[in-house]
């Protein structure tokens, strides 16, 4: 029975002794400041408050062969110069401010606030890319060629509005729907000049995203806009950025404007494929007050292969072995090919909306390109694009083909 007093003493000791709480694992704290391939970051320990500074620069050259009519000028150009300030304020609120100083002009490209309740449900307000064109939604730093293909000329660029968007089932379904001021084809706006607004939407499916199938990075969807607009109309350009459609004097938008764009992308290993179609139709008013439709359609298919075995993706090739000659590393090489076309609807031509001596009825281009990604921040691009035109010269003749060489040096961080 001697053990009973000992047990009572032990219980008493536990009763009066402080109980040590079970030690919790230390919470992971974010470093207050970092610098790397994705820019410069200052943040709180929790990461709820973050400031990230990054940007990119595109120094381009355009050179034309056989331009006997002197329509094009060989030139170097600072195509884009965009510092980017973005971050998080209070965990669920993200912002982005992106000015552009390219071409000697100052433009506010992006300025938005994104409320991120969850990946499934987000709300964005401000100025940003409208959710329509597939290649337009691709970052300018990830583009396969120096200039985007013809479908991008028929969809809006940046617009001002409010958008509901998100991803469902781990990214199998991506959606976006919003109300915008209404940007012209290929253009951007900062404020509206009329009471009409555009409804824009996009659904993109990646049905094999969660598996290990070779179709894991196959995605397809459709996007479009609808609204009533008035005012100036767009100018369509070739890959060399030369005007290929000239409207007659007095033509303005005045009525319903609709667009739709089916699209697809597929990446597997070192191979990539991107394709899209775009259609745009606007109700316009002629100088005499009568109304007709201005319509155009465009398409493209782009294929690429990473010659060095690096992985292809919608966000571009990221070299597994960055440029380091001392170690025999030279970065990643990507070979790309593209065909693209645009056509003005015959009804618009028959209605006398365009100047036949300066407007093509159709343009088809093929291009070859070589991209050298020295590391995640520096890329060198060399392209050649040949474009054939139907119409666009005096007396109904075909405009002379355009042969353009492009070079680009890209720095991004």
What does this structure look like?
This protein has three helices and 18 strands. It has helices spanning 3-16, 134-137, 346-350; strands at 33-36, 39-43, 49-65, 75-89, 93-100, 107-118, 121-129, 158-168, 173-180, 198-205, 218-231, 252-268, 271-285, 291-306, 332-344, 360-373, 378-391, 402-412. It has a 16-stranded antiparallel β-barrel with strand order 3-4-5-6-7-8-9-10-11-12-13-14-15-16-17-18. It has 413 residues and is mostly beta strands. It has a single domain, classed as Porin (Beta Barrel), CATH 2.40.160.10. It starts with a helix and ends with a strand.
Q: Would you kindly provide a brief summary of this structure?
A:
The chain has three helices and 18 strands.
Counting copies of identical and different chains, the oligomeric state is single chain
Low-confidence stretches: 1-21
Tally of helical segments: 3
Question: Could you state the CATH homologous superfamily?
Answer: Porin
Structural category is mainly beta
Number of strands: 18
């Amino acid at each position: 029975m001697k053990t009973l007093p000992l047990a009572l003493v032990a219980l008493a000791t536990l009763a009066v002794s402080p109980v040590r709480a079970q030690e919790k694992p230390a919470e992971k704290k974010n470093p207050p400041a970092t610098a790397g391939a994705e820019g410069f970051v200052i943040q709180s320990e929790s990461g709820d408050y973050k400031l990230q500074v990054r940007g990119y620069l595109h120094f381009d050259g355009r050179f034309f062969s056989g331009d006997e009519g002197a329509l094009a000028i060989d030139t170097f150009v600072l195509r884009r110069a965009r510092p980017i300030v973005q971050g998080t304020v209070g965990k669920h609120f993200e912002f982005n401010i992106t000015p552009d100083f390219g071409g000697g002009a100052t433009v506010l490209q992006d300025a938005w606030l994104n409320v991120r309740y969850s990946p499934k449900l987000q709300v964005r307000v401000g100025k940003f890319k409208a959710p329509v064109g597939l290649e337009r939604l691709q970052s300018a730093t990830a583009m396969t060629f120096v200039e985007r293909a013809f479908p991008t000329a028929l969809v809006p660029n940046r617009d001002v509005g409010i958008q509901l968007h998100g991803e469902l089932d781990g990214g199998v379904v991506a959606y976006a729907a919003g109300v915008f001021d209404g940007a012209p084809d290929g253009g951007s706006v900062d404020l509206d000049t009329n009471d009409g607004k555009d409804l824009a939407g996009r659904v993109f499916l990646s049905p094999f995203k969660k598996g290990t199938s070779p179709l894991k990075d196959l995605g397809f969807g459709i996007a479009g806009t609808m609204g009533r607009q008035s005012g100036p109309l767009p100018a369509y350009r070739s890959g060399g950025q030369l005007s290929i459609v000239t409207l007659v004097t007095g033509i303005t938008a005045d009525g319903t404007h609709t667009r739709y764009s089916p699209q697809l992308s597929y990446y597997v290993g070192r191979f990539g494929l991107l394709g899209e179609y775009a259609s745009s139709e606007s109700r316009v008013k002629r100088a005499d007050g009568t109304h007709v439709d201005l319509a155009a359609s465009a398409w493209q298919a782009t294929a690429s292969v990473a010659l060095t075995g690096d992985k292809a993706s919608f966000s571009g090739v990221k070299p597994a072995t960055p440029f380091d000659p001392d170690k025999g590393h030279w970065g990643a090489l990507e070979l790309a090919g593209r065909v693209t076309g645009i056509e003005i609807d015959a009804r618009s031509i028959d209605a006398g909306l365009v100047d036949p001596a300066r407007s093509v009825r159709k343009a088809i281009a093929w291009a070859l390109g070589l991209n050298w990604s020295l590391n995640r921040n520096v890329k060198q691009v060399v392209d050649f694009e040949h474009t054939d035109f139907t119409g666009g010269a005096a007396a109904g003749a075909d405009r002379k083909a355009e042969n353009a060489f492009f070079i680009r040096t890209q720095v991004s961080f």
